[in-house]
Every structure is written in C-alpha cells, then in structure tokens.
Protein 1
Amino acid sequence: MVKDLLYLGVDVGSVSTNLVLIDKWGDVKEALYLRTQGRPLETIQRGLAKLAERYDDHQIGGVGTTGSARTLASVVLGADVVKNEITAHAVAASRLVPGVRTILEIGGQDSKLILLKDGVVSDFSMNTVCAAGTGSFLDQQAARLQISIEEFGELAVKANHAVRIAGRCSVFAESDMIHKQQMGHSLEDIVAGLCEALVRNFLNNLGKGKKLEAPIVFQGGVAANVGMRQAFEKALGHEIFIPEHHKVMGAVGSALLAQETVNRAGGLTQFKGFSMSEEKIAANSWECGDCPNLCEVIEIQEAGQLLARWGDRCGKWENALAVARSEAASEAQLQTAGQ
Amino acid sequence: MKVTFPHMGNMAIVVKALLKELNIEFIPPPPITKRTLSLGVQHAPESACLPLKMNIGNFLEAAEKGADTVLMAGGIGPCRFGYYNQVQREILNDLGVNLNMIVLEPPDNHIGELLKRLRALTGSNSWWRLVKAIRFAFAKCEALDDLEKAASRIRCRELQRGDVDRVYAQACEAIDQTTTPKEIEQCRDEFLTKMRSLPLDHQKRPIRIGIVGEIYTLLEPSSNGFMEKNLGRLGAEVSRSIYLSEWVNEHLLKGLLPVKGHKLTRKRAQPYLSCMVGGHGQESIGATIEYAQQGYDGVIQVGPLTCMPEIVAQSIMPNVEKDFHIPVLTIYVDEQTGEAGLLTRLEAFVDMLERRKRNQVESGMQG
C-alpha cells in the first residue's frame, strides 16, 4: 500500500531550528525542536538525519522553509516554497485555531503581532531594533536567578502582587529587578512583575493603534511560560489559546504552504532527499572588494559544486551564477538534442 | 571653485547637467556605499537622522577628491533639514575640512530670491544662460523620473531577474551623456521602448503598492534598503508619492513650472491633519488617501528614524487605514537597519496584500 504523503516544514530561527512533518489533513505527525546554536546548516542536517531514520524520500510530498535562514535552508533542501515567518505563523494558526483574530508570537529574538480578518492577515507588526521582551531575555534572567525557564513561569503564577518593573529596555529591566530584589520583594512577585513588564512592552511596541480582538492565540517558544500567558490574559481581558504545537508553528505553517504550493503546481516536489543530511555542504563567505560597498557574498557549495550565491548589492555574483546555470542547462539541452 | 553636492536618487545627474551648462567645475561625490555611511555615522550626532549622516559622508568623500564648495538645498519649517547645512558646516570645520556652502533655500516670496542665491555660484553667466541651464537640467530630471516610474511599474513583470534594472542603469547613464534637450527626449523614448520590449509577463495582475513618506528616504534607494527594487522582485507594482522633478519644482522653484504639485494632496489630508507639520507629513497622509482612491492594494510609509513629521503622520495613519480600507506599513530606517529584517517585513506585507486580493477576487466571483 502506498503510504499517504507527508509535508516537511522547516523553520530555521536564531535560537531554534524546527522540523515538522504533517499529513495531508494538516495533522502534525512529527515535530523536532533543535537548538540552532549558530550553525544552521549542521542543525538542518542533524534534523534531516533524525527524520531519515523513520521516513523515506518518496513519502515527502513537499517542502517549505521559513525563519531567518529560510533561503539557506531552501537551497540545501530543495524547497517548494520559501516564505517569511509572519505568513507561516498566520497560516498555521488559522488552520489549527479556526476563526483566530489575533496572534501573539514571541520567539528567541523577535516578537510579532499578527491580526487576521476572515482568515487573512490584515495587519502585522514586528519588533524592530530592540529585543527586550523576547525569549532570549527571559532565558538570560532565568539563568541569572538560577531557575530553569520552565519553573520561571510557574513562579510568576504564585505571586501575590506583581511588582512594577521597567520593561522598556532589557538593560534597565535587569537593573530594576536587581533593585527590587535588594529591597526585599519576593522572587515570585518580581518574576510576575517581569512578565507583566514584558507584556506591557510588547503591547506598547507592537500593538499601538491596533485593536486586538478575540480569539487570541499565543505561540512561539515563550508561550510555554504560564506566567507570560497569565500576564497577557490580564492585560487583554480575554482567554488566550496556546496551540499544542506552539513551539513549532512556523514550521507547521511552512509545511501547510508547501502542500498548497505543490498541489497548485501539479504535485511534484523539488525535495532533494534525506541523503542531503550526509552531503558535504559548505557555506563560504567573502568580502567583495570591487567597490567600497564591501558586500559580504555568501556561497553554498555541495560536494564542491556551487549551489547558490547571494548577499551582493549589485547582483554581479548572483548573476554570474545564473549565467553559469543557464549555460549548463543549454549545454545539457544540446547534448540530449544530439542524442 | 570645485563644486560638489549630496546624493539623493538621480539628483547627481541633474545637478551635473546644471553645472556643466554654466561652465562650473564640479566633483560629484562617489556613489553612496557602506563607507559613505560609516564616515557619516562616525562624525554626525548619533540622534541626527539618516539624511544628515549620508550627506556628511558624501561631502567628506567629495572633499577627498578635491571638492571645495558644496551646493545643497536648505529648508524652512519645523523639519530639522532646515538647519542641516549649518550643522554640517560646523562638523566639517571641526574636522578641518573647509568647504564653502552654498545653500539653495526655497524662496519666501519670489523666485528672484533663489536666483540671487544662485548668483554666488554662477558668477559671470548671464541670467538668460542660467534660466536656460535650469531648464535643461530640469528636462533631464523629468526624463529620469519617467524612466524610474516605468522601471518600478514593470519590474514585477520581468521574466529574467535583473533585466529591468540593467536597462534602467543604462538609461540613467545615457541621460547623463546627453547634451541637448532634443537628445534627452530621444534618449528617454529609446530606453522606455527598450524597457517595454524586454521579456515581460503581460498577463500578470500584480498587486499595487504606493510608497509615501519623507523625501530623502523615498528618493535615495541606498537609504531605504532598495525598497522599490525589492518590492518589484517580490511581485508588486510600485509607485511613489514624490518624484525628484516634483520636489525641485515645488521646493526650489516655488511651483513655477507646470508639473503636478502636491497642493491637492495636502488638501486631502486636511480632515486628518489640517496644519503644516514640516517635512512631508501632510503629503504622506494625503498621498495615502489618493492611493486608496486609485485602488492601490497597500501603502508603505518610509522615513528616517526619529523623523518628527513622519511620526505625526504615522499616529494618524490608523484612522486613514480604517476610513479608506487600505493597509499601511510604516518603516523607519537608520544606519542600524538590518536588510534581512526589512526584507521579511516587505515580503510579509506583499503576501498579505496578495492573499487579501485573491480572497476579494474569489468572493467577488461568487457574489
């Protein structure tokens, strides 16, 4: 019997790399949550190798990539669709929570607010220059207080009254927290205060002038933190849903998008196969010195062969590759014509 | 006297034409690169906006090549740009770079005031010669605008990535070389035809995005992360609320020439923003309304970080969005702006508009 096709979604972010397999009904069959640790290429390959233990190439019906390293991932995997995180998160949330109007997403180094209307994104905002209030900061503070990030949220729930902490800037928030500790406030109250400060910061930065309507979904790594959820509920006055796969929603979204794209394009995927996990893939970069722009050109090679290049402003290197490719293609055509 | 000037989009070609006609020696600043910006950032106050930093970078690089005089525009009103030439002169003095500044400020009452200021530059040239030179330079300006508009319109249709930009770059080069008004016209027509005869997807019904906002970040692609090019490559047809010829005519020539102005645009902003707030705050509001009325799918507002007029406009935008059913994305740029983050936002915005449009078309077909 032919097994049902699965769709692979890969979200390569600053902190985590997530791989998800969904079936054709959009149910999550497999979800991997790996730490990127600054090595996106190796992490993708590690994830692929894990999946390869249980799945075959021909089971994969489509591949989608998202996250800050989406282009890199797409080149390595042979993705059918490459989409930004906002679209991916919106697609996943509206599939898993039908009728969703507001998505709060807090990841490792960025946070997003997405508003939907009739299942379509109607407005969004993303934190710009500041990472205060994102997962990395919570991680840091938990480490400083020597509690695990999981405990962190539970502590906040136990608070009697949250102290007020300046959440505008993570540096000031930290010194404010230390100050409150020295004053003798309990750890629970400080942690709860921090959650409220981060929520306030999120809503002030991203939600200004926007109407946040229910149903509201909270996703991203930070959604696991019950303290943050409680603080959001308090601030917004609505119940907040946290989807089961809240950590990997970006990957789920890109898998759904891959399914949509492949179906529309006639059913053939460009997936290069699980064997990519063993290929020697090298990423090079160099500074082009042809003008004072000093662009950092990035080059991806697979077994000594050039896969892709980008990063140049003028398009010289990018084009050089396109030309080489089309020449190779026309040569191949000539050869088949000759036969 | 070796005159230089700041870059702002294609302005260099126009100023060069003017100075050449007047037989004034000039040294254009090298194209804006990372080095230009880091020079500017190094010597400008941290909280000043991006245009000041880029200008200073331009002047320093031009001075390295031997320029001794700067020709730049000034301004009046609440926008900081009005005193930038003084600030820049002080900064350059402190650095020991002595550049003579000639500031073309918009005349308060009459075009004659501008001509008087130009006199310092033109020396023995006759008035007639000066008027002729301005007209010649302005013709180049209009031709460049036409080419830029065409490029932004059809970039989303190119079948081979980079085609349109290559022809557009050739066109700018060719316009720069022209020496008579007739040549300018021929050159413009030639390249417009060339652009249209590229392999294009004529069936495509792209989404349309209008860009509004602060003049410098609108006009200078290197300051806004090459927004028009990126949007085109993401599949959107792009139009801009201000083009160079309109700005020159309104800002410097006091609307003397028969070019589309923004009087009406400002009037449309009246119900939301009834007074002048400096810069292009009112125009940003008005132009957003105009784009909505013309059936555009979305608007992007762009300005340098800390730009007061655009902040005022931004706080009013939610009302305009609601009243005219048009999504607006606000993007501030400065030297910290990461290209990846910017591209993610643009891509998400284009995606959002495309899905919205598809839904509208589908529900329209059902209804």
Note: The beta strands of chain B are 3-4, 69-73, 100-104, 207-213, 236-240, 298-304, 328-333.
Protein 2
Amino acid sequence: MLRSYCKQDALVVALDGELDHYCAQSIRRQLDEMLADPSVRYLVLDFDKLTFMDSSGIGVILGRYRILRDRGGKMAVCHMNPHIARIFHMSGMDRIIPELDRA
Amino acid sequence: MTRNRMELTFPSLAENESFARVAVAAFAVQLSPTLSEIADLKTAVSEAVTNAIVHGYEWRRGDITLRVSYDERGEMTVEIEDHGRGIPDVAQAMEPFYTTQPEQERSGMGFSVMQTFMDDLEVVSHPGEGTLVRMRKRIAAGVRA
C-alpha cells in the first residue's frame, strides 16, 4: 500500500520498493484509485524510498502526467536517487515534469 | 579468456524480472563493482528480461536463459535469450521511444537504457525463433590478482 497525503487539491504519494514492469501494475492501479477523485489537480511523486526503477517506471510516470494534464492539473517529482534521475532525464521527462528538489 | 560463468533458465514470469537482475548483481560482486555499476547492470538486465516476457512471449509461457561470464580483465558479458516470436526489424525496435504497445504504457526506452548503461549491446533476432541480447560491461575494479 502506498503512503499518501492529500490536502485540498494536492496529493503527495511516497513510492517505495522497486518499480519495474512486474510492480508497475499494482503501483499504477493504486495511483489511479487516488486520482479517481476529480478534485485532485496536483500530484507529487516522492521517490525517496524507491530503490530501483527501470523504463517501466517511465511509462507509469508519463501515464499519470497525462491524466493530470487532461484535467488541467500539474505533476512534480522529488528525492530521486542519481540512478533513477538518470533514467528520468534520459527519457526527457525532466522537460515536462519539474523536480522539486533541484534548481 | 573466460574466468567464471553462470547460466540460469527460468520461465517468462514477470516476478522473475527481479530475480534475474539480483542474480546478475550477486554474480558481479566477485568483480568488486561500484554501486553505480551494479545499478547499471541490474537496470539493463531488467530491460532485456522484460522485453523477453512482454514482447518475446507476449504473455505466453516460455523459457528465458540468462548467461553471465567475465574474463581476466573484468569484462562482463551478459546474454538474455528467449525462444519467442522474435523482432522483425531490430533497428526500428532499437529507436528511442519506439513501442508496439503504447496502450500498455510501455515507454519504448528499453534498448536505449541497455545501450546507455552498458558498454556494448548486440541484438540477434530471428522472427519465429527468438531473440538473443548480448551486452558487455567492463567493471573498473576487475579481477583481483
């Protein structure tokens, strides 16, 4: 179960464990259940406790970005370790999704 | 010359993605890799095994073979082989963001990640017969005398 914190229209979700193709299904389902509430317009994904991510994670992030964008909302990420940040930058997602802990 | 090697065969179950990358990392420890090198290896293996499961076998059950070896200079060779449907156009499949399954939220980044995180990537595929992914990476610390 993902830990999350919601205040008004903003939702912060702390990812943990690993985000590969196997884990992606469950993480995607849990995120989408939280995003089913249409009042959520801002999503922050906290990667602090995520120990591994491969390109399946890119698909999950991009899919949630589109959901938020389609309802006029925004998404951000934080606390990516260097390895996860490398994949994030490789995919070019840093150009559309801000990293809150980076200038 | 090969100094050490290992081979594993496992069914194309998604839970084996984690098993495969951890097995490679455990074997690589003999070369005293850095945490960054370990992360590179794990990610590349995860991508190749995921491709075999999702594309090679398209959710049918089949065997995936993982072969890992290293030589006296600490160069690792990792092979991931499936006997699935194969890739009709390898060059196209390797283009960044190319995916045959956009509706599954596949990013199309798998081969790009393998290329970036390993020193060398080779893909041999025959439609109807399967795919062999061969990757090489030099572990800087290498084999101790």
Note: The radius of gyration of chain A is 12 Å.
